[in-house]
């Protein structure tokens, strides 16, 4: 084989390799990108992307569609207590969009797990999860393109409302029916009816002031602790901070965690118990020693737990000047 032929063969092979390389590296056209996303979304409303797909479909140009990306860490080793719940709410929004009458290829939902794309977290400068970001059809995401879950939570309805604000696409969330509340009500009514039937000849307990007082207090504690706010906003149960600790109290006066409402209810109950003990001490006339014990314990409960409640309020309402016993 002559040297000239070898050179020609070598150049031809290099040309073929170069053509294949260019073809592999060729950017997908807009129509190809949209078609690929549409096909994938028809099978699974929430698309899971690694670094390469994120670069190609979310940040690739040109684009005529928006993407809502949830950055999360679902692996058990990451110990993200709220990531699974947030992922379920995110999937609920994506499914509602996929099966809505206004569905189009102008909006896609994407999930990026830290273990599948740590480089993506570095690109967008994230060091915590979950985070919801909107990548618009044109330009780069702005600060308002990140959902403030500290303020509004991550309930599916809140995510859909935020998506509408950023994309002008309205999504009606179709939440699967939850019969647990109805079942609990039926069981409660059955118990009440059964109790009334068993004691039909003696209904004096219906006129017991203590029973009605405890029921009224329980309802009051539930309402004043923020249970209705939880029902409307759907906040997380608790949150893991950036340094790995668990936050039980929300740092803003505009938000709260579910566990925080339980804490507030227990603090209010302790203050009320102290007031009841002091009232009992004032009414008892026979045993001076017992009156003194009731008064001291009651005063201690009121002073300490009211101070603790005020301290929590100070931590949430920055700049509040007043405190009592505890800072």
From TrEMBL:
Q: Kindly state one GO CC term assigned in the UniProt record.
A: oligosaccharyltransferase complex
Principal subcellular localization: endoplasmic reticulum
Protein name (database record): Tumor suppressor candidate 3
Subcellular location per UniProt equals:
Endoplasmic reticulum membrane
Q: Which GO terms describe its biological process?
A: magnesium ion transport; protein N-linked glycosylation via asparagine
What does the record give as the function of this protein?
Answer: Subunit of the oligosaccharyl transferase (OST) complex that catalyzes the initial transfer of a defined glycan (Glc(3)Man(9)GlcNAc(2) in eukaryotes) from the lipid carrier dolichol-pyrophosphate to an asparagine residue within an Asn-X-Ser/Thr consensus motif in nascent polypeptide chains, the first step in protein N-glycosylation. N-glycosylation occurs cotranslationally and the complex associates with the Sec61 complex at the channel-forming translocon complex that mediates protein translocation across the endoplasmic reticulum (ER). All subunits are required for a maximal enzyme activity.
Extract the signal peptide range: 1-24
Its annotated pathway reads: Protein modification
Which PANTHER family does this UniProt record tie to the protein? DOLICHYL-DIPHOSPHOOLIGOSACCHARIDE--PROTEIN GLYCOSYLTRANSFERASE-RELATED (PTHR12692), GH11935P (PTHR12692:SF0)
Q: What family does the database annotate? A: Belongs to the OST3/OST6 family.
Which species is the source of this protein?
Meganyctiphanes norvegica
Question: What InterPro entries has UniProt attached to this entry?
Answer: OligosaccharylTrfase_OST3/OST6, Thioredoxin-like_sf
Q: Keyword Zinc on this protein?
A: no
Q: Where are the transmembrane segments?
A: 179-198, 210-229, 262-281, 293-313
**Membrane topology, from the record:** Multi-pass membrane protein
Keyword Transmembrane helix: yes or no?
yes
The entry's keywords? Disulfide bond, Endoplasmic reticulum, Magnesium, Membrane, Signal, Transmembrane, Transmembrane helix, Transport
